[in-house]
Amino acid sequence: MKYSWRFKLDCVEKYKSRIYIPVPEHSKVSHHDFMHMVRDWQKLFDLYGTDGLKKNGNNRILSTDDRFECVARVMAGESMRKVAFDSQIGVGSIYQWVRKYKLYGYDGLKLKKGRKPKEPNMKKEDKPKNLTKSEKEELIILRRQNEYLKAENAYLKKLRALIVQKRAESSVKAKKQLLSEDSETKDID
Which of 89, 93, 100, 179 could form a disulfide with 108 if both were Cys (CB 3.0 to 4.6 A apart)? Predict the structure, then answer.
């Protein structure tokens, strides 16, 4: 849940005055976790004043060196929370950077833009370079044949599915006829 700047400031003032602060109704956090947030707000207020409670409008992206500096401080023994407060970054980000540094080293801290491909082995279609006129014509013909074969394959799959469906329907009809003939012979007896 996002809290307004005014709400954070009121909570900090109540916390400093030792007044009980109830958890907001629509908040899904426990009172214990909420009080951790209030203490964090109080620390931000002490460090940066009222600007520390305002949401940083621009999501600044730290360079690999800046990330490494934060990780180095944590590895040297500082707490993740202190490093996060000093650099005005979320504790979760610091945690992820430390984890990635331990797994992959300095390369794990590099910023990777974009999403991973669904099929990691899938390569982008290479455009042929410097083809002769006959090679280009052959490529066009092969692509048309490929499209034709794909369409034919799709048609055959549908045809096979229809045949299987007809066989299943005819076997159901045959079973019904056998059952009805058996019941007629029993009725006669």
Answer: 100
The residue with tokens 């299987």 is 164
Instruction: Decide which of 1.10.1660, 1.10.10, 2.60.40, 1.10.260 is the CATH code for 59-112.
Output: 1.10.10
C-alpha–C-alpha distance, residues 41 and 163, integer Å: 69
pTM above 0.90, yes or no: no
CA dihedral 162, 166, 172, 178 (to 10 degrees): -170
Sequence-distant (≥ 6) Cβ neighbours of residue 42 within 8 angstroms: 12, 15, 16
Q: What is the pLDDT along the chain (189 residues), one digit of tens a residue?
A: 678 888 888 999 999 999 999 888 888 888 898 898 898 888 888 877 887 777 664 566 788 889 999 999 999 999 998 888 788 788 888 999 999 999 888 888 887 777 766 666 656 566 667 888 888 888 889 999 999 999 999 999 999 999 999 998 888 888 888 777 776 666 565
- C-alpha 101/C-alpha 135 separation (Å) is 49
